[in-house]
From TrEMBL:
InterPro entries, per the entry: FAD/NAD-bd_sf, FAD/NAD-binding_dom, Ferredox_Rdtase, Ferredox_Rdtase_adrenod
Coiled coil regions, renumbered to chain: none
Family the UniProt entry places it in: Belongs to the ferredoxin--NADP reductase type 1 family.
Protein source organism: Spumella elongata
Designated name of the protein: adrenodoxin-NADP(+) reductase
Binding site for FAD: 31, 52, 60, 96, 415, 422-424
Amino acid sequence: IRLAMKHLCAGTMRMALRSSHHIAVVGTGPSGFYTAKYCLDINENVRVDFFEKLPTPYGLVRSGVAPDHPEVKTVQETFTQVAESPRVRMFGNVEVVDSSTPVSDKNTISMDELRKSYSAVVLAYGASSDVSLNLPGESMRGVLSSRSFVNWYNGHPDFAHLNETAFDLSKVEHVVIVGQGNVALDCARILSKHPDDLRETDISTQAHQALCHSKVKSITVLGRRGHIQSAFTIKELRELTRMRGVQVLIDSTELELGRTEASMQEMENNRPKKRIVDLIEAISLGSNANEESSTGGDDINTVQRTIRIKYLVTPTEIVGDRNEVKALRVVRNTLTGAAHKQKAVPVPAEGENNNASEVLPCDLLIKSVGYKCEKLGDSIPFNPQSHTVPQLKGRVVQSSQPEAAPVSGLYVTGWLKRGATGIIASNIPDAKETAAAIGEDLRAGVLKDLDNALLTSSSSPQLPWMQSSAGQNVLSSNTVVSWEEYLKIEREEERRGSTFTPAKTKDKITSISELLKVAKE
Ligand SMILES: Cc1cc2nc3c(=O)[nH]c(=O)nc-3n(C[C@H](O)[C@H](O)[C@H](O)COP(=O)(O)OP(=O)(O)OC[C@H]3O[C@@H](n4cnc5c(N)ncnc54)[C@H](O)[C@@H]3O)c2cc1C
């Protein structure tokens, strides 16, 4: 019997390895690409189809990473290698939606259809919303999330014209940014950098023009806790000190308040933390300001903009006038609790004179307190507390309860799996884990075999956008962008960029209709 079982298992394994396994990956950000890469390594019969709601791939590498950090974007070369595998296809400009979403003019495909048509579906659709400050007035003109602001300067089609409706940099003098992560510092840097130093980057041309007319004088970056808990990294902070015409200010009394016993313990045996604290202290003493300013046409000693990094404050009120932001009221905090668990609590007001509160004037308020993932619909399990899809080693499970059963054929990766934190490289071990789970399930015969996946099979769903002019191949549809067509977009953006003086890396195309036109030319 044991021998018979062994043969049976070996047979199942051989069949699993021989037959085609089509995997759908929802989203073409780093996590989608890395997971696809490791899935292709499972065996040579694995095929991957990407579904991406934009006509362009790369997720936050295109619409998040700052334009003046081109070295970070070289990771696209790795992703290109994945996309160019003959076993990979991209269906760009196709949004995956919940099964209950009514069919619309947009190119959509439901989760149900995907799950029926693919051996496995990997959710890699990242974060599409923001953590709120939970203050009245967040919808005022001049208040926006860092996600909106970053998408704007990176030319994301949904945000490309934000400066025509949400803010006007030619009238903004004072900016307050709530939050002290690297994204907050990206926003501060882009707002204060000399526009000539952004000219050659792939920043959206519209955003660059707006920055050329900017009247911004001061940017204040707020943190609830002290300097020893700063969330940004040293590289990003140092960059602020190296911009011409920009002075970084930090109040030494705030640093004094942050040096609690618990904070000092947090620094023990933590060299990276110690180095960043040293830099913060040097800035507060003025000994680091503009230490390596680049030389440009301007007198580098003339301070045109200040960036103030302010610690131990919590916003309590957005002050507006006729629905436009005018100021942010903050209260002073103090730190309590043990090392690594310290909390910021408001300092009690003394008497009638409420000197624990302060009003910071601003005509632009950027909330940079976190990106947030959203659920795709009721058919996919979702944890509303952590804003992630519940999973075990990358397998989606029914709920966040321990021992919850896996949802057959459904996997998750990236920010949607871990929460919206971590750098591009953090997605690698995460993607490996998800791909390993798919490989195990495939070898165990848990995943269904599919000779023909969606769009090539006779059972493919007939959605309006799938009716191509040729009537046969959905990839020839006028609105679905294949990888080869995306490359046309990339070449055109580079060509347009080369017509600028000095040349831009790319002149990004920011409207869906134009992206499609170029793709289909
Ligand atoms: C502003 C910012 C700057 C950053 N800078 C750096 C940096 O300099 N260096 C670094 O290492 N890391 C950086 N990161 C972190 C890095 O970008 C993330 O770790 C990474 O992008 C997360 O990958 P992801 O694939 O989970 O999500 P994403 O990159 O967001 O990709 C998700 C993809 O899914 C698509 N999608 C969404 N919904 C759907 C749907 N319904 N159907 C189909 N497709 C869908 C989206 O269009 C997108 O292409 C930065 C992050 C931010 C926010």
